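Dear colleague,

Thank you for sharing your sequence with our group. We've completed the structure prediction you requested, and as agreed, I am returning the results in plain text so they can be pasted directly into your records. Please verify that the sequence below matches your submission; if there's any discrepancy, let me know and we will rerun it promptly.
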Amino acid sequence: MKVPAFRAAILVTLGLVAACAPGVRVADTTPRSAEKLAELWMHPQDLETRDLLHGPGGAAAAPQAGASYTWVSTDTTGYSPGYEVRGADGRVWDVKLGPEAQSEVVASRVLWALGYHQPLTYYVPSWELAGGPGGPQEGARFRLESDDSEVIGEWAWGDNDFIGTQPFDGLIVANILLNSWDWKTSNNKVYRSKTSSSPQQRYVVRDLGASLGSTEPSRLLWILPIPMRGFGQGSRNNVDDFESRGFIERIDEQSVEFDFDTIYGGVVDLVHPSSVPWTAKLLQRVSDAQWEAAFRAAGYSPDVTARFVRKIKAKIAEGLAVS
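Please find the predicted structure tokens below.
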């Protein structure tokens, strides 16, 4: 039987979608050692006192605002423009411009507060670039590249040693709560310490700028090359969009559905319902002062900060309500 042209096209498209959909490893129920879990997450016993204004590097490691930084190279990949620069002290920074600069700093602070490893990341509201394009620059995210660790590889949301653990589930839930949606493998790095610090190896989710906005239905994005998928999954750093989306659509003893459109549905489906209140209870420990500090660290105005925090707290309350 001859298939009409338009039906054939649909079938071909659906076949491509199925072939290109990100795969997910079957969850492993084998208990992980504390040493292994520490590579992804360490219980934040000091969560209430963590400095969300300056992050894991503290004030001492922050780049100087208003200073001149020497151009090393220009980053032409990804959604946001950026540079690699060197400060007067010799430290090398990866710099990201545009709307993602603010949202990335906030998302990084939140994940670090919950116990997930994060690189040293700061928002610099104004600075000078010496060399290259040169001149005064807008606010930017500065991520330290020259420290006591090095990137040795990448890891995927759907294929890693932590699937089936509550900290990994919690990482998924936290990203959904922040509407952080750009989950391509190239954003996830494995760091190795150059010193004897523990853990020597750390699994890090970084480049978190595609957050604090909304997500959009995007199944057909599966047929696009991976580098192009980040341009159509949702918005970034948009408080109106962030306020417009919910959190939990349905939850029972076996599964949970989120108000979160994603091409990584298989990863989202890994979340056990018990991990929602687990994550919410960690987030509940973040104080009002810490929330304000996290957004102030990224240069947000008080009124926009209040709107973001109000919505985040509403989502936390949803998560607590299912416990």
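Summary note from our side: Residues 108 and 119 are 8 Å apart (CA to CA).

Kind regards,
the structure core
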